[in-house]
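Q: Joint fold for the lines below.
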Amino acid sequence: MFDKVVIVGVGLIGGSFALGLKAAGAAGTIVGLERSGEALARALQLGIVDHAYATPEEALHGADLVLIAAPVAQTGRILESLLPWLAPHTIVTDAGSTKADVVAAARSVLKARIAQFVPGHPIAGRESNGPDAAIPDLYRGKKVVLSPLPENPQAAVDKVAEAWRLCGAIVHQLTPGEHDKVFAAVSHLPHLLAYALVDDIANKAHAGLLFQYAASGFRDFTRIAGSSPEMWRDISLANREALLGELDAYLAQLHGLRARLAAADGPGLEAVYGNAQRARRAWIEAIEAAEKPPTQESGTE
Amino acid sequence: MFDKVVIVGVGLIGGSFALGLKAAGAAGTIVGLERSGEALARALQLGIVDHAYATPEEALHGADLVLIAAPVAQTGRILESLLPWLAPHTIVTDAGSTKADVVAAARSVLKARIAQFVPGHPIAGRESNGPDAAIPDLYRGKKVVLSPLPENPQAAVDKVAEAWRLCGAIVHQLTPGEHDKVFAAVSHLPHLLAYALVDDIANKAHAGLLFQYAASGFRDFTRIAGSSPEMWRDISLANREALLGELDAYLAQLHGLRARLAAADGPGLEAVYGNAQRARRAWIEAIEAAEKPPTQESGTE
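A: Joint structure:
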């Protein structure tokens, strides 16, 4: 399917993409490209990539697909380093958690060659990071959002979509603006809230006592606060406007809930809690229905 | 160990206590007591209890231990119904998520017989509820906080502690006030925050689109919003003062974080996120060290 795939940033996300393509027998060669040698050496050692390069010239030679799986703030710099060696038939995509800023950076760097860049975002993750966390099944049954640009030829979009489907993913499309608004609400805000809670507790005088009694509910609630602070700083800044909008809506919601609590308004609290429980249950049921094994006729992978 | 144990409220919490004692071979008879017959009939059918009663007279006859595992707001009413049939040697404990209000209700009802009531709170749960969710291992390795009263004879406290240890739990002690302050921070506030987020999203015009892209991070963050709205309404009201204090501290934290985001203060955001990640990691490491299988000399269970 792919003669040569280049992974820029061989951590959890890029490494799992490589392993997924390998498991599907879909790539002739997969090479890793990274300035810092440590993760890349480990990825080579683990067999995630077949070759490792610190500079793009040789890495890009003959490549048909490049995945940039690096913090979003680095996308522009990475594209700059790739551009001189980018053949006209090579398609570049990314795995960044924000899209409008990535598209802006890509346009600014690639200019007339923006048609070769198909923005994307796989909706998958694990608590741990780095090449050691990479697994071939990370994307199985998970969504990947592509945000194609008007300049992208359909064949380029199809090629990227196919790579993700070979990893077992379900491919969706949103515009960069839609994407950023959606993920500000369901991903970026929860991360900010979880970080805020753990930091709040950690800064209290009796933090040790508090953590001693934190249990599984707290553990799940704060799991996303175990994510990389640098990555989430970048995402917060990259999607600042949409995130501020969602945060303000949430603050208004919390102030309303505070007023109900202060007034000992039991029915008012129960209405919010009950609506949340029902909405979450309906959502979980929809997920579980969608995650059922595909029937034979849909098994085209 | 126990001739007869009475479980008032045979759902996840009460049922798992019964199953834990049964698995340890520590109870002659376990009986369920509940006004509504459905859950109790199911518990009998599942073998969680040996007998089921709708009224206390026969249930309490010859009992040495009673566990009240019902919403905290019902504790006073339940104790009132038990009091006429409560023998002097019977010890009563509870599994309520708040303690100061439970102690106040118990004092008001039991008066001079308050010495027979040893307040407790097992720190364990699951996403599902009811007798079908009950499992013998729910408390294994989990903490149970007892909040003994000055009036409790040491033998009564020891008896309750022993029952929980037989279920595999680790018994801690906090005063009712300490307990409520701690759990306002690490349990009650996160529940309120999770409910608030899901309700906020569910009320948006494009809620369907948002839920479609909510992923595992959102699922874990909001798991506790799947809990019973009635139960958490009661807990919120019962621990209102401490919860308001924690909510206000969190709101102040969020407003501070909002200011950093609005100012595009990358280092400021990263400092909060990084502190949270480090604190959480240290906490997880401490939990995992504590959850290692006990060495031989500590294996007195």
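Q: Anything notable?
A: Chain A touches chain B through 88 residues (CB under 8 Å). Residues 2 and 27 of chain A are 5 Å apart (CA to CA).
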